[in-house]
Structure formats: structure tokens, C-alpha cells
């Protein structure tokens, strides 16, 4: 079980959740952040701090919602090679030490950018 970051984070990335995660398991892509499904301890602190309600406990996800696709996508972020990398990230053991990954999954990269108002 883990919390999952959905589409509302894309192009927002204010990182409030990162500051509140006690085990540093929220990793930064290019346009979205990703919670490590194996490192997350289900404390819920990140969900309470997100200003756009992008974070959901996986048990509460509606299987029909677009955000449900981001659960499998978070696993893909860590366990499949990302563009520009020859091997998966797997369990990096901390987002601060790893630093920004700088790339996204194909699912997130394909989401149209929001036009600035
Ligand atoms: S639920 Fe807790 S451990 Fe999991 S990502 Fe959020 S703040 Fe970190
Ligand atoms: S707090 Fe919400 S919008 Fe901000 S980076 Fe985290 S998931 Fe994304």
C-alpha cells in the first residue's frame, strides 16, 4: 500500500509534500512528483499538505478515475528505465540524495501543458 500522486500535480510541483514526508520518499520528475510505492509508510502527511489535493491513498482510489492510472505509473517510474537512463531507479533510498530525476514517465510526458492565464 502507498499514497499516490495524481494528475493535479503536473506542472504545479510546489513541493509542499516533499517538505512534509518523514522518510523522503517523494521523488521529483520533470513535470510531476512520484511517491515510491515501496518506500512510502502510509503516514498521510503529504496528502494533508498538497494544495491541489493531488495525493490519494491507493485504497481510496476510484478504479475508474484518471488518477488510478498513476498508481501503476509510479511503479513504472521506479522499476522501468526512464527516457535517457539505461537502468531503473529501483529503491534509491531517499529523494534528497538522488536529486531531481529530471524526466517523467511516458504517461506524464504526454499530458498537455496547461496554458498560462
Ligand atoms: S504517505 Fe507519508 S511516507 Fe508516504 S509519501 Fe506521504 S508523507 Fe511520505
Ligand atoms: S504538494 Fe501536491 S502539487 Fe505540490 S508537489 Fe506535492 S503532489 Fe505536487
UniProtKB/TrEMBL annotation:
SUPFAM superfamilies: 4Fe-4S ferredoxins (SSF54862). Pfam families: Fer4. Its cofactor is [3Fe-4S] cluster; [4Fe-4S] cluster. InterPro entries: 4Fe4S_Fe-S-bd (IPR017896), 4Fe4S_Fe_S_CS (IPR017900), 7Fe_ferredoxin (IPR000813), FdxA_Actino (IPR054830), RnfB_subfamily (IPR050294). One of its GO terms (molecular function) is 4 iron, 4 sulfur cluster binding. It comes from the Bacteria. Keywords: 3Fe-4S, 4Fe-4S, Electron transport, Iron, Iron-sulfur, Metal-binding, Repeat, Transport. Binds 1 [3Fe-4S] cluster. Residues 31-60 form the 4Fe-4S ferredoxin-type domain. Ferredoxins are iron-sulfur proteins that transfer electrons in a wide variety of metabolic reactions. This is Ferredoxin. It comes from Pseudofrankia asymbiotica.
Amino acid at each position: 500500500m502507498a499514497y499516490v500522486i495524481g494528475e493535479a500535480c503536473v506542472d504545479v510541483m510546489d513541493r509542499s509534500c516533499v517538505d512534509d514526508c518523514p522518510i523522503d520518499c517523494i521523488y521529483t520528475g520533470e513535470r510531476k512528483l512520484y511517491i515510491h510505492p515501496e518506500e512510502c509508510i502510509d503516514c498521510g502527511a503529504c496528502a494533508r499538505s498538497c494544495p491541489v489535493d493531488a495525493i490519494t491513498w491507493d485504497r481510496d482510489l476510484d478504479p475508474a478515475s484518471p488518477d488510478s492510472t498513476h498508481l501503476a505509473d509510479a511503479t513504472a517510474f521506479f522499476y522501468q528505465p526512464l527516457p535517457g537512463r539505461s537502468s531503473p531507479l529501483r529503491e534509491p533510498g531517499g529523494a534528497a540524495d538522488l536529486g531531481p530525476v529530471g524526466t517523467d514517465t511516458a504517461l506524464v510526458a504526454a499530458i498537455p501543458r496547461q496554458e498560462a492565464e
